[in-house]
Design a protein that fits this description.
Nucleotide-diphossugar_trans; 5-stranded parallel β-sheet; about 600 residues; 21 helices; coiled coil; 8-stranded mixed β-sheet; Rossmann fold; alpha/beta
Amino acid sequence: MAQAEHAAELARLLDAAQARLAEAERSAEEVKALADRLAEAEELLADERAAAEKLRKELAEQRYQAEVANWKLSSIKVARWNRLGDAIKSGRSNPVLLAKGLKGAAKPVKRPTAPKRRPVAVQRAKDERPGAAYQATTSTRTLGGHSFKLKPYRIPTGPNTRPHLTAAVIADPHAEALLRYEWRQTTGFTPRDFARVLPQEVPHLLVVESVKGGPWAEEITGEPGEGLRALLGWCAERGIRTVFWHTGGDVAPYRAAAALFEHRFSADPATGWPRLSFGVQPRVHNPIPLSGGRIDRVLTLEQLLPGHLAYPDVLTSYRWPAAVDCPPGTPPWRLAEIAACGTPIGDEADTRRAHVALRRAYDGGTMTERIDDLLERIGLPSARATLEVSLLLPILDRFLMEHALAQVARQSVRPAQLIVFGPPEAEQRAADVVPDVEVVFRHLDPSLSAGAMLGRGLDLCEADLVGVMDPRDVYGTHYLADLRRAFLFSTADIVGKAAYYTHLRKPQATLLKQPEAEYTYLPEVAGATLLARRNTLRQLGFADLTDGWDDVLMRQCRADGVKVFSADRFGYVRVRDEDRWLLGAAHLVEYGSAEPHALI
């Protein structure tokens, strides 16, 4: 009986596997068909561009020939023989007029300059990357009658979270800045030209904010305008989903227009519509500092944001002061944006509190997560890259096993996969300590270096990101969550810490290495804090070394142009008995434990 049940289960699994294989084959055929269509479209586009370029060159040549003809005609008119002929003809019956005309014709006249062929200007395609034409313009601020020149924060041009999705968006500058990185975004169309603009890249959805100004404001307040009705009709004919998003103020003026949309969302739960509030946008609300650093002053919110700054200039201001003293009643989204930029909120520059506030701002929800919810509600796929982590943990010393596994177990965001190299008892112990994590165990091989083991472990990793932990060191509860956050706003392939605390047991000294190295691109980070994109790490590989494999990896990154980003100083403590090099290269914090300083 048991054998029959086993055979039936095997048959069921075989049928399921064959069904998945057939589905995969169908998907592969669809992908191939789409690739063929894309290739055809790209070929047609190339032909059209070539034809347009040819027409532009022909038009330029025709303009040149017309200028040459006009030049020849002008030259003939001012030629001496032509002017003499005109004088004789006009003074044929008048000797006085003839004499005056001959005298004038005898004077030299400057001939017109011959035209020259001008090179045909190369028409550059419009840069449609998010933020490409959306940069700060105001570089000076005034405080107490003194002028300060800032180096503006450079708005990033990507990456795009969902490049497969196109949205037509009608929004005020603030909301537009939050949405522009979440999909391919079409903006700037009006009630008069949307039928010409939108077909150039037919959107998958239309998102209309309760805008306060611009060409659509009158269309969506009070009685819906004909332009809005025409736009929604155009979308309905093409099966384009329509979304109205109320972001603030009285909803009453917008209710009639909102009723025409398929879906309605609001930042105000009192409207009764599904909730969609502002979230921080990691591409622009992040702790990457201004190149000129911060001013050593605490500013009021009024001093921070004077007048009517354009939103790119607001993003520059967020990063400028040592701290911002915000009054009661400041909107929560404003507080979250300031905190996400790493700026302390309060009457003093407290970096520890600022880091906690930054973490809280991101935990409150990013715009990417908000859009995930929106797309799920309206029935569109929200496929995007994940930040799941495969963690490599080589335990070379069995006495460090419990400590090492405890560092993984304490993480607020668990890894999706844990690859452990250790003594035999580590396999069961890892399964007990982190029961909700997939554990892959491999026995220690004395003939292998630490780098060789990491290389073998890398072949077992399945998540998008791969991290390395050192069993000797201490990792805080939010270590992994804080570190992987950097992939939301940096363009690096490897993230780690060049600024970190270290504790030396023998002298009982706590040191801080490179505090200036936070949130910046650097040549190297500590190997025990390594978190990297899996594909990049596979291309680089690990050196067959026990000590120094991370130094070799960082040299390879510099040689290959791989970007390395140093995150914050918190959440990690390097623990060694002694390290003379660090004693001379790092700042002494105190004689005592490092954990109160590092683990927050």
